[in-house]
Amino acid sequence: MAESGEGLGTVPEHERILQEIESTDTACVGPTLRSVYDDQPNAHKKFMEKLDACIRNHDKEIEKMCNFHHQGFVDAITELLKVRTDAEKLKVQVTDTNRRFQDAGKEVIIQTEDIIRCRIQQRNITTVIEKLQLCLPVLEMYSKLREQMSAKRYYSALKTMEQLEKVYFPRVSQYRFCQLMIENLPKLREDIKEISMSDLKDFLESIRKHSDKIGETAMKQAQQQKTFSVALQKQNNVKFGKNMYINHDRIPEERDEIVLKRVVEEEDENEEEVLSVQDLVDFSPVYQCLHIYSVLGDEETFENYYRKQRKKQARLVLQPQSNMHETVDGYRRYFTQIVGFFVVEDHILHVTQGLVTRAYTDELWNMALSKIIAVLRAHSSYCTDPDLVLELKNLIVIFADTLQSYGFPVNRLFDLLFEIRDQYNEILLKKWAGVFRDIFEEDNYSPIPVVSEEEYKIVISKFPFQDPHLEKQSFPKKFPMSQSVPHIYIQVKEFIYANLKFSESLHRSSTEIDDMLRKSTNLLLTRTLSSCLLNLIKKPHIGLTELVQIIINTTHLEQACKYLEDFITNITNISQETVHTTRLYGLSTFKDARHAAEGEIYTKLNQKIDEFVQLADYDWTLSEPDGRASGYLMDLINFLRSIFQVFTHLPGKVAQTACMSACQHLSTSLMQMLLDSELKQISMGAVQQFNLDVIQCELFASSEPVPGFQGDTLQLAFIDLRQLLDLFMVWDWSTYLADYGQPASKYLRVNPNTALTLLEKMKDTNKKNNIFAQFRKNDRDKQKLIETVVKQLRSLVNGMSQHT
């Protein structure tokens, strides 16, 4: 039962497999057959049986179908055999018909061939005529081209070539003669390019040689225009205002009108002589070459060549001669060549399209400007002549104005002019330093004497001096200052004029010019004049009298500074009340010089006192005084009296300070003389003699050699000496020791160390010369007293050192 059940389950599976085999492509039968072997045992055998049964069924169906269609197949074969017989008959009939047609059309074919031959000949003739009509214009145009080449009408020849290539050659391009012509055209173009390039080279060489003439003409035109503008401005009082002062004289307005008329007349005379750049240079080679290369489509090559050659020429033009800085002509040639170069470039820029662009000219100008500035900065540094620098400045201004009129930016050139202006100022300062030195060397350092009204007015015209008291005095009379003061004042104004010459035409406002003039004048006063004054004061041959006169001179120069400010204001027409107006520093300059002179007076006065003190010849072992002061001291006092009389023209404080300084220095010198370490012993008689000299000093101080001291202020300079000498001559040691350190002490200014030093010198003298012989009875007591005082003084000195 199990096997029968198993067999029933297998049969449908075999049927499914057979259906798959029948319906599936033979390439995919493999998996289906593999499933037969993967089934239960004996499944293969059963499947084969099932397969055989299926094959038998299909054989039966095929046999049935063949039996059903067999009769129709037999009938079709029979019909086909009948048709073959009819086809053979039809073939024979067609062949016969074709033969008859061929025989009938032979004559027609012969005539038709003749007609065709005639038609071909006719068509060929027509074609030849048409082609000749096409070729004749080409040949005529080519002949025209050869004529144009012979006549050197190259631009027209290029246009003819272009017309041949675009219009005529395409019509006859299939002919050999056309190919020959086409092959010859590039050679003709190259010939034209070479010829035009040769003309361009000649042109470039020509403008290189004539660039200085071109530049000179352009700069002359710019200078004439500038001269006319300046004259017009002067007439209208635009630039510096109506008040122009030269040596205190105004320029009359009629003079401005005369100058303007003269300028206009000169321009009219030179108008015909001045030529334009077109008159000086034939630019046709450039135009022709440019057109030729444009037609040839090689405009870029021409532009590059032109620009490259012009850049080379620019570098040659910008290279200065090594000795250019020696003369103005060297600078002028340098500028005219550069101007000529850029005038040509500007003309090319405006008359051609694309050959020279604004960007190219700007780049070339910036390169040239950097080189020009470097060259001018280097060469101008060698200039030491202010006139040469001024002429260079004028050339640079005309150079800049000329190029600016052609549209080139020149701000950096004016910035360079400010650098050159600083150099110009330095050169002027050096020159004026020499002028000031010469003035000081030639001065006699004494007041200016005048014996008549004319001489008085001459001095007043040179220097702004106002003194009602001096005006009322009768002739002859003297100005308080020396001759150098008006000379210095005049030279300062000349310096301002020299600076003004450089500041003109710099395209700066009056305010800026005013500021530049004031700053330059300040440099002259604070550096040059101040240095000359200080050097003068330090010179060994300048004595006290000269120093006094220098102080007086500086006082009047200081007062004249306000007139210098007014002078600059009149020139620039800028009020001093303007916020940004620079003030002159002359006040501080002359004050510093005056202080230096005062200090030198104090120093020289002390040196003179030292010279007198060195003449002192004291006998320090003198037993009794001479009864009169030393001769050197009396000479010194007389010298001081005469000197202080000269000081009456000085300001009060200066004279008082000098007098006090002299007295203090004299007191110090006398004190040092007593305490000199080389002086080993001093007798009481020498002290008394020394006291007589100090008394004369005190009398001199109390005589008020210089007015203005209050009470015994001047005598206090000798108070240290007075108290020291009183202590020794009175021998009041008990009072000194008892009151030491008290504010009300009688000997408050006596230093214990000073007293000890002098006492020891007198002690040594006592031992050797027995100067206290009159006290022989009390010699032991006196000696003991001196020893006691020395010990107490030493203790005071030690106490002071410990306290310090």
Automatic annotation (TrEMBL):
Gene3D superfamilies: Dsl1p vesicle tethering complex, Tip20p subunit, domain D, Exocyst complex subunit Sec15 C-terminal domain, N-terminal subdomain. The keyword Transmembrane does not apply. GO terms for biological process: Golgi to plasma membrane transport; intracellular protein transport; vesicle tethering involved in exocytosis. It comes from the Eukaryota. InterPro entries: EXOC6/Sec15 (IPR007225), EXOC6/Sec15_C (IPR046361), EXOC6/Sec15_C_dom1 (IPR042045), EXOC6_Sec15_N (IPR048359), EXOC6PINT-1/Sec15/Tip20_C_dom2 (IPR042044). Residues 413-761 form the Exocyst complex subunit EXOC6/Sec15 C-terminal domain. Keywords: Exocytosis, Transport. Pfam families: EXOC6_Sec15_N (PF20651), Sec15_C (PF04091). Component of the exocyst complex involved in the docking of exocytic vesicles with fusion sites on the plasma membrane. Belongs to the SEC15 family. This is Exocyst complex component.
